[in-house]
Amino acid sequence: MALPDTPVLNPGVRKREVLGWAMYDFANSGYTTVVLTAVFNAYFVGVVAGGEAWGTLAWTLTLALSNVLVMLATPLLGAWADARAAKKRVLAITTVGCVLATAALAGVGPGSLALAVVAIVVSNFCYAVGEQITAAFLPELARREALGRVSGWGWSLGYFGGMLTLGLSLGYVLWAQGQGLPATHFVPVSMLITAGVYALASLATFALLREHARPQPEAQAQLRGATAQALARLRHTWKEAARYRDFRWLLACAAAYQAGISVVIALAAIYAAEVLGFKQTETMALIFLVNIAAAAGAFGFGFFQDRIGHRRALGLTLWGWVGMTALAVVATTPGPFWAAAVLAGLCMGSSQSAGRALAGLFAPPAQLAEFYGLWTFATRLSAIAGPVTYGLVTWATDGNHRLAIGVTGLFFLLGLALLRQVDVQRGQQAALAPKA
């Protein structure tokens, strides 16, 4: 990844550190691509749950349980990491946890519901905490005026990591199907491939990325032996509405639009299989195309959003998401659904990159991990609301996936309405103002 000579990095930050930081997006993207989006979700519904009507709802409730744990834990972990300057240490622990839990999915087969639920809950929890900690490094690496570009580099490289993992898994699936082997054989192997790529690629992050923060003795004293005090610190941050109100509006906006994105990530393969009759290899090829579009969107849009402004850029992508859901609802043949998938990919990389960059602008420099903990809290809330809403709609309507994806479009419209309340200049000024 070549970085331009223009001053986009903070003083003392080396280019190789940015590469190491971006390599974590490369490492963990295979988890969401293969486990949550392309392979294991459909396997959970069709094989583990035996194709029963409750399968989709059970999958969404499993993700919801994991995300509830994330919501409860990440603000405290963020505050602890800030106080101890231990973001890299927390990242290492959650990486090991996600890799081991993903490997455990290789032991899941028909009827192994308990093992599947536990492994998904643990792996998704560790993945989400790692995402929060990785995002908290961004403002330490990039200048504030270049957050969009650097964030886009990470997202785009991440999608190539997802494509590598998915490509290796797809190659094995095609070989296994040629040998007449069933899904109970090739899906477990795909889980081992995913865990292996995650583990190997993340080594670059731990070798190249440095911890730039310094321990905060006062915060450590508050945290030491007093979890309640740490949570009180977070409650105090949340209550500073007059000072950080744009950050709070952004959190509400993110909770809305990320609910829709969470549906696409968690249920796209199920929708393709249940509504349009896609086979496993067709679904994997579809998700591969989505990742190509997402990589292009994240990288190209990173430069574009720094020019036109993160708020306007995010608004454009949300309108794109509205168009995507409309295409998916009316699609009766594979063609329009493939077009919707490409549009989803373009919007996915750019919207997530723009949101992460805006959060970096609004976060006080001394509380990066803590504020990104609140950001993760909001996105995990959305990861509960979106998929569970989808699951409840399909369960209540006896499997009407078209109606469920139509309801998903409302989350993006709500995100657009909330985004209108965000004032970028005011939010930056609040973040940089000295504390009273």
How does this structure look, described?
By secondary structure, this protein is mainly alpha-helical. It has a single domain (15-432), classed as MFS general substrate transporter like domains (Growth Hormone, Chain: A, Up-down Bundle). Helices cover 83% and strands 0% of the residues. The protein is built from 16 helices and no strands. Helix 2 (40-48) crosses helix 3 and helix 10 crosses helix 16 (424-432). The protein is globular and about 65 Å long. The relative contact order is 0.16.
CATH level-two architecture:
Up-down Bundle
Number of domain units: 1
> What is the CA–CA distance across the termini?
41 Å
Order of helices and strands: HHHHHHHHHHHHHHHH
- Class computed from helices, strands and strand pairing: mainly alpha
Using the coordinates shown, work out and report the CATH topology.
Growth Hormone, Chain: A
SSE inventory with pairings:
Layout: H1 15-38, H2 40-48, H3 55-84, H4 87-104, H5 113-141, H6 147-178, H7 183-208, H8 217-223, H9 227-239, H10 241-276, H11 280-308, H12 310-330, H13 334-362, H14 368-396, H15 401-419, H16 424-432
